[in-house]
Amino acid sequence: MGASQSVLGTLDGKIALVTGASRGIGRGIATALAEAGADLALCARDAEKLAETAELVTNTGRSAECVVADVGDSGSVAEAVVRTLEVFGRIDVLVNNAGVTDDNLLIRMTDDEWERVIHTNLTGTYLFTRAVTKPMMKQRSGSIINIASIIGIMGNAGQSNYAASKGGIIALTKSVAKELASRNVRANAIAPGYIETDMTEELTDEVKQKMREAIPMKSFGVPADVAAVAVFLAGDASRYITGEVINVSGGLLI
Ligand SMILES: NC(=O)c1ccc[n+]([C@@H]2O[C@H](COP(=O)([O-])OP(=O)(O)OC[C@H]3O[C@@H](n4cnc5c(N)ncnc54)[C@H](OP(=O)(O)O)[C@@H]3O)[C@@H](O)[C@H]2O)c1
Fold first, then answer.
1. Is the CB of 27 inside a 6 Å radius of any atom of ligand 1?
2. Which CATH architecture has domain 3-247?
3. Which atom of ligand 1 is nearest to the CA of 121?
4. pLDDT tens digit string along 104-142?
5. Distance in angstroms (rounded) separating the CA atoms of residues 85 and 101
6. Whose CA is nearest to atom 45 of ligand 1?
7. For the chain, which residues make up each domain, given as ranges?
8. pTM for the whole thing?
């Protein structure tokens, strides 16, 4: 089935900017959006890994532009958006996916661990969202997709910084949805459960086994599971959906 015949409709002619596109879920989302017909601006700090994602995108026949930037740096974020507009002329879809963990029990958490996670995950999402607001409002269309986490809804011992950042992303998403709806700019969040990437690879086998047992579907997700929902939220199939949070967790959060 070609991009233009997808059951979700086509993203042909749409321009998408994906943060954290150098690996994991971000790479999966970028590739899936390209397969659905979008051209891509790819953002992360690691230029080499970003170039590998760009190759996956161009292999689908779509264009890719790499914009190396730290999502927590206001100036670099503004530059990344300007560069994307220079190259492609518009931004239809923003996927705020870049994120980090720095786990510790609250009693031992350092200010640096707290700040780093809140700054990259929540402030980074805010900075990119603010930067695309003007062009999307002028276009009278846009889809902002924020990658949250079920931890932002359920909480998790040892991840108070991460949970707060992801809960904040959900609250930000709902507020942005209300602010921009009248301009036909939508904002939704995806809350993944346990997805196999570098981020989850560092857990011990024992923890992974326990996690798998707790998941009603008894298996971990893969980046393509999250990417499929991102393609849906990016396109016209979801044109009347805004301010929503879609869980992709194999039933872990029901
Ligand atoms: N894996 C899971 O089970 C899971 C579950 C729920 C939610 N999530 C969320 O899904 C998103 C992607 O996670 P993942 O599992 O794919 O993680 P990952 O494999 O560790 O990838 C994280 C991505 O974020 C980028 N990134 C980190 N800090 C950045 C910064 N300051 N500026 C720009 N880019 C930055 C990294 O690129 P560079 O290092 O090249 O900058 C990388 O591309 C995150 O928001 C995560 O919280 C993941």
1. no
2. 3-Layer(aba) Sandwich (3.40)
3. 45
4. 999 999 999 999 999 999 999 999 999 999 999 999 999
5. 31
6. 99
7. 3-247
8. 0.97
